[in-house]
Amino acid sequence: MARDGPGTEKQSNMASINLIDSFQEFKDAENIDRPTLMKVLEDVFKTLLRKKYVTDENFDVIVNDQTGDLEIFRRREIVDDDMVEDENLQIPYSDAIKIEPDYSVGEEVYEEVDVRNFGRRAILAAKQTLAARINDLKKNNLLKKYADRVGDIISGEVYQIWKKEILLLDDEGNELIMPKSEQIPTDFFKKGETVRAVVKKVEMRNNSPIIILSRTHPSFLEKLLEIEVPEIMDGLIVIKKIVREPGERAKVAVESYDDRIDPVGACVGMKGSRIHGIVRELRNENIDIINYTTNLQLLLQRSLTPARINKMELNNENMSADVYLDPDQVSLAIGKKGVNIKLAQELTGYSIDVYRDVKDDVDYDIDLDEFADEIEPWVIDEFKRIGCDTALSVLELSADELVRRTDLEEETVRDVRRVLEAEFNEQ
């Protein structure tokens, strides 16, 4: 019969040490509660016992909750030497008294089991099982941690920058992902930079938790406001709704539960002190704070800030509104690239159509920009420089007054007036 060579015991000892190393890693794993640690360790070693001894019923796996030290004991009943039927469950009397002379038949013997007795392969298999269980626990722990923090602002350090997303690390070294679609268009990050974002969602990919961050989601602005405005954190002011066009404009409807508090003023702060920091964080995104009201017409009017509305016609069945404004207010209502009116519609839930308010009396007016095909842009800009941005504002001044106040030639001024007067005559 072949005997194990001297290297066998050394290999077994190494395997045992490796297992203990894994056990130590498991024992020191962060944010994993101790009862869970103890239970998994017990399960792994009981699996080893079942493979070697068929059953683990007469084994006690003891894990010290304070030190993490592990001991395995086997319990066997003492029987007469010729009555042994199962060596795993019974021990001959002659062997028992070698352990303790005072033992007698019928008593139980407790013996400590050396981990190395399981064999090298079994120990390595247990090591792999233990590492897998540790990994699964860490994944589940990370999943739970961030699932509970969805909607919260966190800070992460930029670790890697790719074309479609960036990789960040939190304080514990966990990986966080911010896709390009969740970044403000003017965001520019450098490796090592600390970035604030909101936890948008947590999902599983290939059995691994992926934490998705966002700087474009409305909840990011909501949390920034909570940080800057104590009245929101205290519940005195409530954010009713936030709509955003990231990097361009945002509208925030707020309401106060305390008549003594002006919700808009509290959010903006003294000389804009509270809102300025948020605007900088959002890459100079314009933020309109408006007072929420259940009066739909008033809410629509406020939602089109900074434009001033003359009148409005509502169709509640179709959830639409026709809004009439002075000519110089139309572009303000629509906003750059239509952003202002788009956000107003999202905020109110109503479809909004903007119309120039045409009046029958002399109050009817036309924005000078409407004449760009007939009047040189630089000439229009010169009129605007002196405060004349509509047709009537130009015609209200005499040609001599316009020549005196602008750097334009008299002939140019008279040509412009003729164009404007012709338009009014047609009307």
From TrEMBL:
PROSITE patterns: KH_TYPE_1, S1. It is found in: Cytoplasm. Residues 151-216 form the S1 motif domain. Coiled coil: none annotated. InterPro entries: KH_dom, KH_dom-like_a/b, KH_NusA_2nd, KH_sf_prok-type, NA-bd_OB-fold, NusA_N_sf, S1_domain, TF_NusA. Keywords: Cytoplasm, RNA-binding, Transcription, Transcription antitermination, Transcription regulation, Transcription termination. Its main location: cytoplasm. Signal peptide: none annotated. PANTHER family: TRANSCRIPTION TERMINATION FACTOR NUSA, TRANSCRIPTION TERMINATION_ANTITERMINATION PROTEIN NUSA. Participates in both transcription termination and antitermination. Monomer. Binds directly to the core enzyme of the DNA-dependent RNA polymerase and to nascent RNA. NCBIfam families: NusA. Belongs to the NusA family. This is Transcription termination/antitermination protein NusA.
